[in-house]
Amino acid sequence: MLKRFTALKVIARLAILLSIVLPMTGALAQGNPDTLLRSTLSGDISTLNPALIADSASIDVAQFLWAGLFKFDAKTSQPMPGLASWKLSEDGLTYTFTLRDATWSDGTPITSKDVKFTYDAINSDKVQSPRKSDLALISKFNIIDDKNFSIVLSKANCTVWGNTFGSLAPMPSHKYAADFSDFMTSPFNTAPDVTSGPYVVKERKPGEFIRLEANPKYYEGAPKIPVVINKVITDTAVINQALQSGDVDYAFMYPDQAEQLGSKDKLNIIALPLNNTPLLWMNYQDSTNPQAAYDKDGKPVKLTPNKFFSDVRVRQAVAMGYDKSAIMKTLGPNGGFLLSGPITPAFEWVGAQDIKPWPYDPKKAAELLDQAGWKMNASTGIREKDGVPFEVKLVYAPLVDLYTNIATVAQDQLKQIGIKLDVSTMEWSAYLKEVLLPGKYDMTIVGFGGGNEVDGIAYNILYSKNAVPNSAFNMAFYVNPKMDALLEQGRSMVGCKLEDRAAIYRQIQQIAHDDVAYDFTVGTNQVHVMNKRVQNYNPGPWNQYWDIVQWSIGSK
């Protein structure tokens, strides 16, 4: 039986993002025309220092407090000027940034020294920052003057915005010790009295709420909504009740939760695509003894082909052998979309929408299996080749109902064309350690998220040099030199022009689709629910708060 979609947890780089659990403390300022009431993500904050943040609850609050060097365009995910503008050298290696005439909320000017301080802090041995690897591409950081600095990369890379530069939201150097000795432990990290973003912290009751007030010195001007209160609510049913009663104005949720909302007359419900790809993985090499695609000297290794899935016709047959549209219906109205490759609909600018997903076509699938030499054994109902029955173990961790629905439909319908799936499940941590990362499986199901970079999914799961057991994420061991060349070109082209990259990623999408590098299944939407009294609210897939200074509260 197919299960209804329940609170899909998005997996980004195979780490489960914390499921959305949203909290409540009472009415606080319910209905106040000066106050926006939000439910925070995943409980209470752990830190508000962006150089140290590793959880979504803290990110959700911190984005109101700190101005980044740039903003992501809400519709395209492309960088646009924020706290700084920039110029790029002809060789694509040197970015020269110019800061706005902006100040911290205490009136102190924001300078190049603050950016360099943040860079040095992250790199310091005294600081344990999850951002250290993000800065590995920087070979030089040069302060030119108070408003100008340059960053030199070791090589051109179009992904620096999502990682490298995104980690350099400046922190106020005058609030920390110059030697970074208090960067990890300062009370400022959880109760900052100076910020650079649209809001400042005024009050916090751990486990209950954090109150933010408009920053009159914000470089874009003070927001029109004077107060934002982020409540901690950990029960999704309570969130829905709070939205109905007006105890909160905003909540982020998944489609099934939005379906459970009662009256929607006072709510704006906006569904936006997630950059996440739930996948049916088929191993390209012998799963009993997985090897890296390259040896220690960087030379290609001839991998032992998987006896089931090394033939592209078999992979295409699997992709057409079960009905993904039926699975999509379990997500509810506006809950999801069919995938054709690693470039999700969130990247509309790539223009890959004309590459259609594999259709459900069991007749064509059976023909392909025949062509590949897998002939039906009439007595068993299972196909055979060279005396080997097409009986495959499919093991996965049932993190969400969607995975179980994929397994259920695939098991039932692939059996009808002569492929027997022996389905089993494992606890996540054991599955990750014993099955997925070592590559010891023939078939599995798991999702992969790619952040805000167009190659975030493709590069990780398709690049052959990422086919390393226990060390990278191409654990299907897909190897295609043409794909490698395109992935390298897409992230290293000088200038990183959108139209040039779009042409490359359309090719990547087409090859991944035709090869069935993975069987791309059903993508999901994220849902933003906002009370209609909040006006000028216009979120995009990549930035829900890009125009927050323009939001206002009316009478609706």
Count of all domains: 3
Q: Which fold name is given in CATH as the topology of the largest domain? A: Dipeptide-binding Protein, domain 3
Which secondary-structure class do the elements indicate?
alpha+beta
Radius of gyration: 25 Å
Contiguous runs where pLDDT drops below 50 for at least 5 residues = 5-28
Oligomer: single chain
How many β-strand runs? 26
User: What's the CATH class of the largest domain, please?
Assistant: Alpha Beta
What does the overall shape look like?
A: globular
**Biggest β-sheet description:** 4 strands, mixed
Give the full name of the CATH homologous superfamily of the largest domain: Dipeptide-binding Protein, Domain 3
Mean pLDDT: 91
Beta-strand level of the residues, as a percent range? Answer: 15-25%
Write up what this structure looks like.
By secondary structure, this protein is α+β, with helices and mostly antiparallel strands. It folds into 3 domains: 11-49 and 60-65 and 197-266 and 532-553, D-Maltodextrin-Binding Protein, domain 2 (3-Layer(aba) Sandwich); 70-175, Dipeptide-binding Protein, Domain 1 (Dipeptide-binding Protein, domain 1, Alpha-Beta Complex); 276-525, Dipeptide-binding Protein, domain 3 (Roll). It contains 12 helices and 26 strands. It has helices at 56-62, 112-123, 236-245, 255-259, 312-320, 324-329, 362-371, 401-415, 428-436, 458-462, 481-492, 498-515, and strands spanning 11-12, 15-16, 35-39, 70-72, 79-81, 84-88, 94-99, 138-145, 148-153, 199-205, 209-214, 227-231, 250-253, 267-273, 276-282, 336-338, 375-377, 382-385, 388-389, 391-396, 420-425, 443-449, 519-520, 522-531, 534-535, 552-553. Strands 3-12-11-10 form a 4-stranded mixed sheet, with no helix packed on it. Helix 5 packs antiparallel against helix 7 (362-371) and helix 11 (481-492) packs antiparallel against helix 12. Residues 5-28 have low confidence and may be disordered.
